[in-house]
Design a protein that fits this description.
Length: about 550
């Protein structure tokens, strides 16, 4: 028996025989003295063919994995058509008179290295996408047979139990080529949990463990993937294998039970409805919210629209993104949080001054109130989008009533501007996030100003316990279940309700199933959680009692 630990992509168990997969290495030589016109024509032809294949893959992904899968290949088309990438290749062909294969491989390597050096994990993970596109272009140039859907599906052994696919590296295209019905799990040596291969595997519900030293001699051997612990166990002992098989059966029974709760409503035994909503980072996540039957979106972290780019998103871009979320949610509530930048979420174009303690610095609403233009643009986009659905807006990092009043001034300006310009808009209910001890202590006063509260337990824990949430060494002190936090939640609910203000929790503590009954008893009205937590929490809510004072 051998055991390896890696990074798990999905909390699920898989067992099966290993199928070792390795892609044929592509050899590319530098050949000089080529006719640039002919090489450029070859490159353009290969690019066109690659774009066609990617569009086909996007269609296949949309059918098999849903919109989030299709987006991955749509993003590949965008990279393929990127002007800088194109210029890097064509300039090399023209100036150095090299063969198109060499120019493509060199440009691909240059961009892949550029991404791998980036600090942000999301951008680092894009290296794999660049390599996938480069490989595709080379396959087209070298007129290698691109595996057709059937041929590629056939690359997994047919007629056997689903296999554990082991590979040094697996591109998103490789993953989509495999027939999911024949794939029990994936183990790779390379790749990050933010990679598109990982995202695809997660969306397809296939457990994957990354960062494991995979070897060709694993082929044909029995393996277990333990997604909870991030373990790969090779040649498991009979008892261990049997134990895992039992857990697998229990997991699938639980999933089947939870599936039945779709459409069942989030009502306690004594009749109180607790809205179970979802936390999302972009319009792309909506498919999952719908799939998991969320009552709405309780926290849309709009800052992800602002990060990882060179300038802030325009009013039009934001409007279209918010509109798309509202339309997809078809009248269900969507709570968009205004820009919460600063601290760990930095964007270079904001040109923020270096701070000694950024978590205690100019973040969240403070930044927005200092950059009125930036904030007004977002508010205008929200007012315009509000026409398309059931929008609510909330503000992060509030510590005073004065801040809420300043927001109203800017909102008033935005409304007046839109009216003057003849652009349709609609008002929305407003809320504040309770994520500082100050907001807790003045929650009665704040409640008089807004329609709802959403408790951000992640920051509330950090600021109450004086523990930096980013500091992994302080994990033992970062305790969101600390009695201080629970008492604060109780206090916020009482103060909010005293003024007719709805109170929800959108921080991670809201998805702790061991506390759901406690929150329901306290009178919490809604929970906003990762989409995957919706059905498990629904089960708990349906077995809870709110008590006479809350129902
Ligand atoms: C929170 O602080 O609990 C919260 C939901 O906001 P974020 O995690 O985005 O800071
Ligand atoms: Mg927060």
């Amino acid at each position: 028996m051998e055991q390896y630990t890696g990074r798990s992509v999905l909390n699920k168990i898989a067992a099966g025989k290993v199928f070792f997969y390795s892609r044929k290495a592509q050899e590319v030589r530098r050949e000089e003295g080529r006719d640039p016109a002919a090489e450029l024509a070859r490159f353009c032809q290969a690019k066109e063919a690659a774009a066609g294949q990617l569009e086909e893959l996007a269609g296949k992904a949309a059918q098999e994995v849903g919109e989030s899968g299709a987006q991955i290949f749509a993003a590949h088309v965008t990279i393929l058509k990127d002007e800088d990438f194109h210029a890097c290749i064509t300039e090399m062909i023209e100036k150095e008179k090299v063969n198109a294969e060499y120019a493509v491989a060199a440009a691909g390597e240059h961009y892949a290295r550029m991404f791998v050096r980036m600090e942000d994990e999301y951008f680092r993970a894009r290296e794999a996408d660049i390599r996938d596109i480069t490989r595709r272009l080379l396959e087209n140039l070298q007129e290698e047979e691109i595996l057709t859907e059937e041929a590629a599906g056939g690359s997994l052994p047919v007629g056997e139990e689903p296999v554990i696919l082991a590979a040094k590296d697996l591109s998103p295209s490789d993953t989509l080529r495999m027939d999911p019905a024949r794939l029990a799990g994936i183990v790779t040596e390379q790749g990050s949990v933010a990679s598109h291969t990982a995202i695809l595997a997660r969306t397809m519900g296939i457990p994957a463990i990354l960062g494991v030293p995979v070897r060709a001699d694993w082929n044909g051997r029995m393996a277990v993937l333990d997604g909870e612990e991030g373990l790969v166990i090779l040649d498991p002992e009979v008892d261990l294998l049997e134990g895992y098989r039992r857990r697998q059966r229990e997991e699938s029974e639980e999933r089947a039970r939870l599936e039945k709760l779709k459409g069942a409503g989030d009502v306690t035994l004594d009749g109180k409805e607790i809205q179970l909503m979802a936390n999302i980072g972009s319009a792309r996540d909506i498919e999952e919210v719908i799939e998991q039957d969320g009552a709405g979106v309780g926290l849309f972290r709009s800052e992800y629209l602002y990060l990882g780019r060179e300038e802030s998103p325009s009013e039009e871009e934001q409007y279209l993104e918010y509109k798309s979320v509202l339309e997809k949610m078809q009248g269900k509530r969507v709570v968009i949080r205004t820009l919460d930048a600063g601290a760990d979420k930095q964007a270079a174009y904001l040109g923020m001054a270096r701070e000694e303690n950024p978590a205690l610095g100019c973040r969240g609403i403070r930044l927005c109130l200092e950059r009125r233009e930036l904030f007004r643009t977002q508010l205008r986009a929200l007012l315009r989008a509000s026409v398309w659905g059931n929008l609510e807006v909330m503000y992060p990092m509030i510590i005073s009533v004065a801040e809420v009043q300043k927001i109203q001034e800017i909102l008033k300006e935005a409304r007046e501007e839109l009216t003057k310009e003849g652009i349709p808009w609609k008002d929305f209910p407003q809320g504040v996030m309770i994520e500082t001890p100050a907001a807790v202590m003045i929650s009665r006063e704040l409640a008089a100003e807004v329609d709802f509260f959403s408790i951000g337990t992640n920051d509330l824990t950090q600021y109450t316990l004086a523990v930096d949430r980013q500091n992994g060494n302080l994990g033992a002190y970062y305790d969101p279940r600390h009695p201080a936090i629970l008492q604060m939640i109780r206090m916020v609910v009482e103060n909010g309700h005293a003024q007719g203000c709805r109170v929800g929790i959108c921080g991670d503590l809201g998805s702790d199933p061991e506390l759901t009954k406690v929150f329901v008893k306290m009178g919490v009205d809604e929970l906003s959680v990762p989409p995957a937590s919706i059905l498990p929490l629904r089960e708990v809510i349906r077995n809870s009692r709110a008590g006479a004072e809350n129902s």
